[in-house]
Amino acid sequence: MIVSWSNMICAYHLLTFRSILCAKTNHRDILTIGILFNGAVSQSEFPLNSTIFSNNMEEDNFLTLSTNIRQLSNDDSFEASKTVCSLLDADEGLVAVFGPPTSPASPLIESIVKNLNVPYILTSWKGTSYDGSETFLNFYPDNERLSKGIAALVQSLEWNGFVIIYETEEGLVRLQEVLKGQSWMRKTNQDFIRIRQLNRGPDYKPFFKHFKNSTETNFILDCKTENILPILQQVRTLGMLDIHFNYFLTSLDAHTVDYSSLDTNANITTIRLFDYKSEEFKNAVFKWSLSQLRTYNKRKELNPYTIKTETVLFHDALLYLIDALNGMPQLPKNEKTSCYGFDSLRDGTELIKAMRNREYLEPLSGPIQFDEHGNRVDFNLHLYNNDEELLATWSGLNGTTTIARNYDETTSAAVSNLIKIKVIVSTRIGEPYLMKVPPKYEGEILEGNDRYEGYSKDLMDQVAEIIGFTYELVLTENNNYGNWDEEKKRWNGLVGDLLDKKAHLAICDLTITHERQQVVDFSMPFMTLGISILHKYPDKRGTDLFAFLEPFDISVWIYSATLYLVVSLILFFIARMTPGDWENPHPCDENPEMLENIWGIKNCHWATLGTIMNQGCDILPKGISSRMALGMWWFFALIITNSYIANLTAFLTKDKMELPIKSAEDLAKQNKIKYGLLRFGSTEAFFKSSNDSIYQRMYMNMKSQRPTVFEKDNADGVQRVCNTKNSLYAFLMESTQIEYAIEKKCKLKQVGNWLDTKSYGIAMPINAPYRGAINKAVLTLQESGNLTKLKKKWWKDVRKGDSCEDVRNKGKDEKEGDLDLAKTTGTFLVLAVGVSIGISIGILEFLWNVRNVSVEEHLSYWEALKNELAFATNIFIYRKKIKSSSAESSTERKSDKIENKSIMQNMLHSANSLMNIN
Ligand code: GLU
């Protein structure tokens, strides 16, 4: 079927330029270009009219061109083949055929033209590359190369995972190289490319709803150009078209869609083969407008942005064909061909060869080169964002990607997007990073960010001011920092908020860890720290009566006491055995009737006791063996008493803040002091994944403790350290938090060095375009010293009263080593008890003596008591009369006494010995 408008063109040409044409056609060959369409002729008419008119008007050309346009049936291949044959049969001067966009009839048409050696030119996408035909040329980029180009441009976006959404299987062919992208993804251990087939429209919402609740933010959308807008409009209603989301559209005509109605902050990138802003393109479009005016006698302004890729390729193909035809030394010999005969157009290959070798042409669709099979292998693929800014260009010939924007340009583009929105900043409550502001008066209602204060808020204020955006602080659920919840299979806390697209930024004392960096990005660190131990100075002791016992362990006391008794007994027996200790009781009597041994049990005990008390004794043994035994006891006493004295000083003054542990190793070695840490934080992750045997042991120990030693919040940990008696709990915490805690609670102390080194950073979604801007702002604050000022403000200045440092310095001024009453009470007590016992025994002795006196003097007990009392209390009398009747009877009684010592006398004697009266 001959399309009427082509006739119209000819008629129009003939009418308007009859005289010129008539003059020329006499000397020029007339050739026909066959054009097949299987749909609307659409925009192809613009370059067609314009190029053919220009050629025909060119005086130096030897050719006059005409067109023969046929419409093909889309579904009926047989009908289509008949139409092609009729085209080939109809025209003797047919030089080439422009094939239709790919359709089911394409293979059949291709086989017909191939058999007849007719030059066959295509300008549309084809799922497979040609192989072998010398009469084919496809100006549309080669399928494999295009796929490589798309993959390279996706890669240039540095996404670390994406969803490929395709509408038809054709899309998968186009995206085959992208599917291999796992190799250049940031993480290789997981499946970060998901592939989903789009449902049949027009309702796409259920399909996209699935992604709304996932962590996916990057989508590669391969669909028909006309479906792009309806899809994005529906995606927008789901809230999936904000700054968190990135869309990569694979259609080469995606630029023809008007996205303004979407009013989106999402990052929509499109690819195209040519630059719409170039002068050449604008000139070409202008020429096409003119030709439209000539054709329809009506002004029709063409918008360059509505020009489709195929139109441009059609223009380039015509340009190549006409130039080749005009440049051929001999025109192709046109013989009538027939599908049903075996005639062939002999010079088909010559024309295609001539087209391949065009060198000086400036095609609109960039550089053109074909491989030996007629597939276009050279072309440039440009990546644009929704602000029509060129992001990158991929070259088909050498396969390299050129990033068009420098770092600053990318950053400023991202900032301009950030300024347009209210940035949501996820955060958590935790001193001194973020605290709720207490109302200044009853009933005061604070709103928005005014509800909070702290380091994080101040830092965010300053970052926002530097970049120029407004933001809102939002508290995360359950006050979690952000860790992988094994049960729910998702990240929680601040990290979860970023992944769930609930926030654009996240700030708190959030540690930059390897695991978190797999799923979110961090800004430059704003604080550096390490894990350390928070512990408490030993409690100041109250009244400890037996503090003097502390220098020795209880076992030493028991052994020493036992030895005292045993050595006293040994001395007793040795003294009895050794002759040296049997002495003359009356040294003046040279031949005494009996010898006396003074080493009774009492004296033995007295001698050993005197030595160990460092006091010595007025009686000493004379026998060699007893001296040997007592000498060795002295040696023992020397060491023991001196050790005691040396230790006593240290023990009585040890309230000078001596901590029992000094490092993590000390903690690991003992079991008395329990230690714990914050559950689900980076500190736990450190211990959990550490290869160090000490840290592994510590973690196992912590896990096995009942009740648990883990805490839900750092503040709880600090509280537990404070409240646990005798400093029996230590908390492993980040040094910044420890610094803050010991600033506020003077009895706390950091113990040991950092176990690791890490930093806090502001978190944001991976590859967030505004990352550069945030980094720059943090760096500015760091260089200007503002970060240090902020730390000082929230760690030192904001608290009221003396800082702990002052308190500790004051404490240092006090004289070290002072003993207060509390520690010496026990010694007073021992003295009091000892003296009381002495008094009691003295009274007993006195009463017993009164009894003896009453018997001897034949007085009543009360009378004797009265006399003895009067005598004893008269402090001016130092001599006492022996109140016996005669010296003889007295001597008798005395010897009686010696021989018949009563038990009571022995007792008194012992008491006398004790009082050192022998
Ligand atoms: N800063 C830590 C985190 O981001 C929490 C505190 C800790 O684990 O000690 O997970």
What does this structure look like?
A hairpin with a 5-residue loop joins β14 (390-395) and β15 (401-403). This protein has an 8-stranded mixed beta sheet with strand order 7-6-8-9-10-13-14-15. It folds into 6 domains: 2-115 and 284-365, Rossmann fold; 143-273 and 384-403, Response regulator (Rossmann fold), CATH 3.40.50.2300; 421-530 and 759-819, 3-Layer(aba) Sandwich (D-Maltodextrin-Binding Protein, domain 2); 531-538 and 658-756, Periplasmic binding protein-like II (D-Maltodextrin-Binding Protein, domain 2); 547-656, Helix Hairpins (Orthogonal Bundle), CATH 1.10.287; 825-914, no CATH class. The chain is built from 32 helices and 32 strands. Helices cover 44% and strands 15% of the residues. It starts with a helix and ends with a helix. α3 (45-57) crosses α11 and α15 crosses α26 (771-783). With 918 residues, the chain is an alpha/beta fold. Bound molecules: glutamic acid. Glutamic acid (GLU) binds at residues 481, 509-511, 678, 681-683, 733-734. The record marks 688 as: Interaction with the cone snail toxin Con-ikot-ikot. It comes from Phaedon cochleariae. The record marks 661 as: Crucial to convey clamshell closure to channel opening. It is found in: Postsynaptic cell membrane.
